[in-house]
Amino acid sequence: MSLKIIHQERQEFSAERMAEVQALIAQYPEGKHKSALMRILHMAEEDFGGWLSVETMNYVAEILNIQAIEVYEVATFYTMFNLEPTGKYVFEVCRTGPCMLVGSDNIIAYLEEKLEVKMGGTTADGMFTLKTAECLGACGYGPMLQCGKQYHEHLTKDRIDEIIASYRSGVVPKEIAR
Amino acid sequence: MSRKILLEHDDVPGIETFDVYRKHGGYRSVEKALKTMSPQNVVEEVQKSGLRGRGGAGFPTGMKWSFLAKPEGVPRYLLCNADESEPGTFKDRYLMEKIPHRLIEGMIVSSYALGANTSYIYIRGEYMWILDILEKAIAEAYANGFLGKNILGSGFDLDLRVAPGGGAYICGEETALIESLEGKRGNPRLKPPFPAVKGLWGCPTVVNNVESIAAVVPIVNDGGDEYAKIGLGKSTGTKLISASGNLVRPGVYEIEMGITVEEFIYGDQYCRGIANNKKLKACIPGGSSVPILPAHLVTKTAEGTDRLMTYESLAEGGFASGSMLGSGGFIVFDEDQCIVRNTWTFARFYAHESCGQCSPCREGTGWMEKVLNRLEHGQGTLEDIDLLAEINKKIEGNTICPLGDAAAWPVAAAIRHFREEFEWHVTHPEESQKRNYGLVLPKSTLV
Ligand SMILES: Cc1cc2nc3c(=O)[nH]c(=O)nc-3n(C[C@H](O)[C@H](O)[C@H](O)COP(=O)(O)O)c2cc1C
Ligand code: SF4
Ligand code: FES
Fold it and tell me: Which of A59, B1, B147, B165 has minimal Cβ neighbours within 10 Å of its Cβ?
């Protein structure tokens, strides 16, 4: 992914979160604090609206006392980091072989129809961004999608209806325990 | 026979907590190793066990450990590879989710054996909720004196940390993992130097898969010789197999190595056959990087003997008629599935995941994806099929890491065994475009 320059007003971690960040940095040996970068970027995404603006990346560079370019390099390499604004919930639907074998193509088609948006797009109300993903380590429980920290597995059309309704009402749908 | 060693007690409620795990015999191996064994003793038991790396390559773990350089005054590191991104593989996740303490216990004993005082578990970023589970379990282990300073009064100190990735398959390759853990892009390093000499922050490092490290627990508890009695020949012990595709009961199974493939696919204890009463068409037994086998070579070898779930038996016949156990990502295809489409999804995966450092891999994987896309959608030519074989040869052996090969070999195998199907897509452009793949959801997914 190439770097897109998208701006956002600078935001900073809360005092509590900053303490967490500092504890994380302290886990690494003297001079190796750059190792905390990836985890801090995940935290920044979580706290600052689900994506990384240039301001956020610069802020993280300041915290770690490294060059901003070192942060851009990493943020552009790893596909989990969003470099532009997304919907409130991002659905990442796995489309790799094993999920395809159990019908991920249909699930993708149904999601596009139901949310009235193409893969890669965001719904008009800003609630959902739809994306495809490569194997997420749930191959035996496919078709599946990931939304934040939650995996939704064994997807069917009915199940998708439930999941969408639940997110719309602001509740993260629980998965059936295995 | 299903044999639970790694997943012992996975069905006990609360086994993810320290107390319940401990009550069921957890952390015994730490007591035994730290109180009665030298680090060298532990390495010797692992050597005797015949344990082979469960991350995919099957390299003997004890031998790998014996290569670790031990210069004076330089820290050594043990890194647990929990990147698990090979399509078809979801076994490490199961173990960490269900029995996180089993991995932590293995990390303590293994770190002790290697003389590592700080160890890391590198976990794929998408498994963020498992990172939470692990950190909770680690905090419990600290609180109970199994991590931290002077563990059980033995004088051995260990700090254990978890670090997330960010969605890059390549970070499962051990030197890319190290780069990533250093807070950089996951570009594999040129070897030598090998991690055993210069790894994390330039220090001697061992990288092992989650399952390999978990297996050290029973090896220490029961002794390497006992462990070696399980399994068959050089495939000692049990193996976690993650089964996916068109099966009645996909999922994660711990098997004793040596059972037949037939039993694994059709047996009541395992996958219970092909979903929707369909027939077996093909199988990829070890994750997307290994060659696909057509039905007649899945349960039998070309010689007509039973194919077994072992490193050796799955590889029998070499590239001509065999495959590999790999990571244990067992993908099963029913008679309605399209091999071309599947090969295309995998090629797309590798093109997406190439780190881009070497041109044969970066360009070659992208090119293969394009050609397979064409073929799948009825726009290819017969020459395209040969072109794929050509691209293959250009990638093979010309890259820094094995991802290039991992992308190329499965395509070659698919063409070798299913050439007519590729040709059908050329001769039937309209049908191949119209075919509506995967319309039927197997019953097992309709829970
Ligand atoms: C492209 C690529 C991806 C890999 N992905 C993984 C992985 O996700 N998990 C893993 O344990 N090993 C993976 N490996 C293998 C590791 O490089 C390494 O051999 C392994 O972690 C060693 O552990 P083991 O000896 O216990 O198997 C991968 C290798 C390559 C080339
Ligand atoms: S073979 Fe591919 S993934 Fe491996 S280092 Fe080269 S470009 Fe990167
Ligand atoms: S193929 Fe979809 S999770 Fe693995």
Answer: B1
Statement to judge: residues A95 and A134 lie in one domain: yes
Regarding whether A94 and A73 lie in a shared domain, the answer is no
**A137 domain residue, yes or no:** yes
Strand order across the beta sheet in which B293-294 lies: B251-256, B238-245, B329-334, B280-284, B293-294
On whether any CB of chain B is under 8 Å from the CB of A95, the answer is yes
Instruction: Give the number of the atom of ligand 1 that is nearest the alpha carbon of residue B213.
Output: 26
- Is the domain of A73 the same as that of A93? no
Nearest in space to B241 (alpha carbons), one of B371, B180, B328: B328
Chain B residue with CA closest to A143: the answer is B445
> How remote is the CA of residue A49 from the centroid of ligand 1, in Å?
34
Q: Do A47 and A107 sit in the same domain of this protein?
A: no
Please identify, among A56, A77, A98, the residue that sits at the C-terminal boundary of a domain: A77
Work out the average pLDDT over B362-376: 94
B268: tokens are 């009541």
Residue with tokens 């390093």: B189
Chain B, 314 to 353: residues with Cβ < 8 Å from chain A are 329, 331, 333-334, 337, 341-342, 345-346, 348-349, 352-353
CB B125 within 8 A of CB B166: yes
Domain boundary among A54, A77, A100: A77
Q: What pLDDT shows up at residue B444?
A: 30
Ligand 1 centroid, distance to B56 Cα (angstroms): 6
Chain CA centroid to CA A38, Å: 13
Q: What is the mean pLDDT of residues B350-354?
A: 96
CB contact under 8 A, B128 and A79: no
Q: Is the CB of B175 under 6 A from ligand 2?
A: no
> Is ligand 2 within 6 A of the CB of residue B287?
no
User: Which of A91, A92, A93, A94 has most ligand 3 atoms within 8 Å of its beta carbon, as the pocket-test mutant?
Assistant: A94
Q: Is residue A3 part of a domain?
A: no
CB contacts, 8 Å: B329 with chain A: 139
pLDDT of residue A174: 86
pLDDT for B137-180, tens place per residue? 999 999 999 999 999 999 999 999 999 999 999 999 999 999 99
| CA B400 to centroid of ligand 2, rounded, Å | 6
Residues A108 and A134 reside in one and the same domain: yes
- The answer to whether residues A121 and A56 belong to one domain is no
Closest CA to A127 of A105, A141, A111: A111
**Average pLDDT rounded to a whole number, residues B8-27:** 97
Do A94 and A66 have their domain in common?
A: no
CA-angle at B288, arms to B332 and B178, nearest 5°: 145
User: Per the structure, how many domains does chain A have?
Assistant: 2
A126 occurs within a structural domain: yes
Residue-wise pLDDT for B373-418, tens only, equals 999 988 999 999 999 988 888 888 889 999 999 999 899 999 999 9
Q: Is A169 helix (H, G, I), strand (E, B) or coil?
A: coil
* Co-location of A55 and A104 in the same domain: no
Task: Give the residue with greater pLDDT, B258 vs B442.
Answer: B258
In CATH, what number is assigned to the domain containing residue A44?
1.10.10
Q: Which domain holds residue A36?
A: 15-77
Q: What is the ipTM metric for this complex?
A: 0.97
Separation between Cα atoms, residue B141 and residue B381, nearest integer Å: 60
Looking at the complex, does the CB of residue B289 fall below 8 Å from at least one CB of chain A? no
